[in-house]
C-alpha cells in the first residue's frame, strides 16, 4: 500500500492535454477573476480605473503626437510652399545677373525652379484703413507655380487658375496695367475685393534735394488668395517683378533668387552644386537656417509631450499592480486549493498573468481605436466643442493655421501600442510571481 506522504508533487498534477502555452482552465479562471463578485467590488473598481487609464493614455498619446506631426507638416508645407528651399544673394553689389544665376541653377537636375524676387515693406491703404504689407515682386510664371497657391503639386496648365485663388485670377499678372494680388485676411481687414483700387506707400522713394520722398502709387486688385496661414494671408502682397523693381527703386536688380528643389531635405547636397555652377560671388542659405529656431522648438515640444503623456500609461500600469496584489491576497484560499489539486506554480502564474495582461491589452486596443477615430474627425470635433462652449478653440491669429492639423505617423502609433502593451505585461509579472510562490499550507492554515 502506497502512503500519501510518499508521493511527490508530480503525482497530483493534472496531466497536460497538449503543447498549449495557456490551458483552457487557465483562461476560464482568469476570466472569472476579472468578473469580480459583490464582495470583491473594490478590486473590480481598481481594474476598471486601470483599463480607463491605459485607454485614455494611449488615445491621448496618439492624438497629441498626430496633432504635433500635423502642425509641423502644415507649417513646413506653408512656409516652403511660399518661400524657396535655397536663397541666393549677391555679395558684389546689386543683384543684376539674376537671369544668369537662374539659368545656371536650372542646369542642376534636382532644381525644380529658380525665382527672382524683389521684397520690400510698404503700407497698403484705402480711404478707410491702412495696414502694413510685405510686397513680393515675382514673375507671372513663377507665381502660378507656387506650391502654396495650389491644392495639388506641379505647375498649372496654361490659362488655368490656381485653386487657392478664391477671387479673380493671376493669369495676365504681367500685363501692361500694374496689378497686385492680396491675401484673404487682408481683403477682409481692408474691406476690398477684386477690381477695387488700393494705394501703396513705400518710405524709400525718389531722392530729392529735400531728401527721400515716399513713393505713392495706386494699384488694382486682380486676385485674392488664401494660403491657409493667417500671417501670410494678412500681410503678403504679390506684385509683378518689373513693377516691383520700379516701385522699390531696384532698377534692373532683384533682392534674391529663391531656388525650389524636388526634395527639401536634400538642400545640403544641392548647395555645393549651386556654388560650383553659379560662382563665388554669391551667398547661399537654406530653409533650415532661416527657420531653425522655430522647428527646433516644435521638435523639443513634441518630445517632451511624448514623455509627459507616457506617464499616464505608467500610472495605469501601476494600478494594475496594486489591483492584482489585492486580488492575489483575496484569492489566497483559491490558490491553495488549486495547488493541492495539482496546479503547478507555472499554471498559477499564467492565470494571474492573463488576468492582468487582459486589462492592458483590451485597454490598449480601445485606446488605439479611440485615438484613430478622434484624429480622423478632429476638425469636426473642434468645431462642435467650440460651438458648444462658445469659444474659438483654435484661433488662427494665435496658431497661424486656419484649421487644426493632424497627421498620424503609423510608426509612432505602433511604438505607443508596443510601449503600452509592454508596461501592462511587465506590471503583471510581480503579482503573478507572488501568487505562484504562495505556500498552500500557510494559505489554508487559518481557513
Could you describe the 3D structure shown?
- There is one protein chain.
- The chain has a six-stranded mixed barrel. A two-stranded antiparallel sheet has the order 7-8.
- It contains 16 helices and twelve strands.
- The radius of gyration is 34 Å and the shape is elongated.
- It folds into two domains: about 220 residues, no CATH class; about 190 residues, no CATH class.
- Helices cover about 50% and strands about 15% of the residues.
- The N terminus is likely disordered.
- With about 450 residues, it is α+β, with helices and mostly antiparallel strands.
- Strand 7 and strand 8 form a beta hairpin.
Task: Tell me the structural class.
Answer: alpha+beta
The biggest sheet, with number of strands, parallel, antiparallel or mixed sense and barrel status, is: 6 strands, mixed, barrel
Helix content: 40-55%
What's the pLDDT, averaged over the residues? 79
User: What are the low-pLDDT stretches, counting only 5+ consecutive residues below 50?
Assistant: 1-19, 151-162
Helix segment tally: 16
Radius of gyration: 34 Å
Spatial separation of the terminal alpha carbons: 31 Å
User: How would you describe the shape?
Assistant: elongated
Question: Would you list the SSEs in sequence order as H and E?
Answer: HHEHEEHEEHEEEEHEHEHEHHHHHHHH
Number of strands: 12
The number of domains: 2
Biggest sheet strand line-up: 2-3-10-5-9-6
Percentage beta strand: 15-25%
Amino acid at each position: 500500500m502506497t502512503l500519501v506522504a510518499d508521493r511527490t508533487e508530480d503525482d497530483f498534477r493534472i496531466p497536460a492535454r497538449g503543447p498549449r502555452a495557456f490551458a483552457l482552465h487557465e483562461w476560464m479562471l482568469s476570466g472569472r477573476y476579472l468578473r469580480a463578485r459583490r464582495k470583491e467590488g473594490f478590486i473590480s473598481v481598481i481594474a476598471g480605473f486601470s483599463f480607463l487609464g491605459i485607454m485614455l493614455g494611449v488615445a491621448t498619446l496618439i492624438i497629441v503626437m498626430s496633432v504635433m506631426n500635423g502642425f509641423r507638416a502644415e507649417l513646413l508645407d506653408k512656409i516652403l510652399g511660399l518661400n524657396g528651399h535655397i536663397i541666393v544673394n549677391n555679395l558684389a553689389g546689386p543683384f543684376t545677373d539674376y537671369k544668369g544665376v537662374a539659368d545656371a541653377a536650372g542646369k542642376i537636375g534636382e532644381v525644380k525652379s529658380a525665382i527672382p524676387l524683389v521684397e520690400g515693406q510698404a503700407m497698403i491703404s484705402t480711404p478707410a484703413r491702412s495696414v502694413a504689407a510685405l510686397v513680393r515682386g515675382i514673375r507671372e510664371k513663377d507665381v502660378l507655380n507656387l506650391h502654396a497657391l495650389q491644392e495639388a503639386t506641379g505647375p498649372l496648365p496654361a490659362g488655368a487658375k490656381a485653386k487657392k485663388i478664391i477671387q479673380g485670377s493671376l493669369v495676365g499678372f504681367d500685363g501692361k496695367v500694374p496689378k497686385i494680388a492680396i491675401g484673404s485676411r487682408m481683403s477682409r481687414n481692408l474691406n476690398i475685393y477684386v477690381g477695387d483700387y488700393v494705394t501703396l506707400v513705400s518710405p524709400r522713394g525718389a531722392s530729392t534735394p529735400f531728401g527721400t520722398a515716399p513713393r505713392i502709387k495706386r494699384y488694382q486688385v486682380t486676385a485674392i488668395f488664401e494660403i491657409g496661414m493667417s500671417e501670410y494671408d494678412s500681410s503678403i502682397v504679390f506684385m509683378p517683378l518689373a513693377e516691383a523693381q520700379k516701385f522699390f527703386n531696384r532698377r534692373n536688380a532683384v533682392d534674391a533668387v529663391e531656388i525650389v528643389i524636388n526634395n527639401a531635405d536634400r538642400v545640403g547636397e544641392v548647395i555645393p552644386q549651386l556654388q560650383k555652377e553659379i560662382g563665388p560671388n554669391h551667398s547661399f542659405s537654406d530653409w533650415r537656417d532661416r527657420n531653425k529656431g522655430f522647428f527646433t522648438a516644435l521638435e523639443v515640444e513634441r518630445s517632451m509631450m511624448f514623455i509627459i503623456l507616457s506617464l499616464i500609461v505608467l500610472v495605469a500600469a501601476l494600478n494594475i499592480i496594486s489591483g492584482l496584489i489585492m486580488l492575489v491576497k483575496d484569492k489566497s484560499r483559491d490558490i491553495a486549493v488549486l495547488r493541492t489539486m495539482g496546479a503547478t506554480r507555472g499554471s498559477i502564474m499564467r492565470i494571474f498573468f492573463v488576468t492582468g495582461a487582459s486589462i492592458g491589452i483590451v485597454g490598449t486596443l480601445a485606446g488605439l481605436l479611440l485615438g484613430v477615430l478622434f484624429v480622423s474627425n478632429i476638425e469636426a470635433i473642434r468645431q462642435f466643442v467650440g460651438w458648444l462652449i462658445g469659444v474659438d478653440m483654435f484661433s488662427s491669429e494665435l496658431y497661424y493655421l486656419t484649421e487644426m492639423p493632424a497627421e498620424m505617423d503609423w510608426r509612432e502609433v505602433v511604438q505607443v501600442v508596443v510601449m503600452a502593451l509592454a508596461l501592462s505585461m511587465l506590471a503583471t509579472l510581480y503579482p503573478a510571481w507572488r501568487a505562484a510562490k504562495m505556500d498552500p499550507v500557510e494559505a489554508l492554515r487559518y481557513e
